[in-house]
Write a structure and sequence with these properties.
Structural class: mainly alpha
Distance between the termini: 55 Å
Largest sheet: 2 strands, antiparallel
Radius of gyration: 21 Å
Strand content: under 5%
Number of domains: 2
């Protein structure tokens, strides 16, 4: 009798967990939370294709090339600059990102802003984030970085506004919301 009631007690818990997981997956799949999705498939492939310093990966040539050679597409330059910024090589990221012909690419503007902010040029970073958001207002990654810029400056009321905008676009469970919320609570930038 005890074993039977124990099993009966577990079924509702398992069902609740399954339903909760299904709900989370449904929300995640419907969420526009990842603004850089055009690279999402390439992220897995490109992480293995890091180039030595001074080189950038060319999708067309399938090899590392000198970025000054003119053989890199805007997407290749943006990818390499983004990767350098995420790796903490902010000066080199800026050099590559400034080579992109499309000066209104929101990803390029975001990672230029990110690199400048991380180098201590917070106001320049914030202005670049705002320009990126003028082009792509739904970009929650840019909004999170902008919020972190505000946290760095101690402007928590402006960071709070960005947190609300992120929540409107992807909820409170998305990575961007959690990162900015953590930065606001700690008083220091996470990314």
């Amino acid at each position: 009798m005890f074993a039977k009631s124990s099993q009966q007690g577990r079924w509702p818990l398992r069902m609740a967990v399954s339903l909760a997981l299904a709900g989370v997956l449904a929300v995640a799949s419907a969420s526009p939370g990842h603004a850089f999705d055009f690279w999402s498939r390439k992220d897995k492939k490109k992480t293995a294709e890091k180039c030595p310093s001074g080189k950038a990966w060319s999708d067309r040539q399938k090899k590392c090339v000198d970025p000054k050679s003119g053989s890199l597409s805007d997407e290749d330059l943006a990818w390499a600059g983004r990767q350098l910024a995420r790796d903490g090589d902010y000066q080199d990221a800026i050099k590559l990102l400034e080579m992109v012909a499309n000066k209104d690419d929101p990803v390029v503007l975001t990672y230029l802003g990110y690199s400048h902010r991380k180098l201590g040029e917070v106001d320049l970073g914030i202005s670049l984030y705002k320009k990126a958001l003028d082009i792509d207002p739904d970009n929650v990654d840019t909004r999170e970085y902008l919020g972190e810029g505000y946290v760095t400056k101690g402007e928590l009321e402006l960071a709070w506004l960005e947190l609300r905008e992120i929540e409107r676009r992807c909820g409170t469970a998305c990575e961007e919301y959690r990162a900015l919320e953590t930065a606001m609570r700690s008083g220091s930038s996470q990314y």
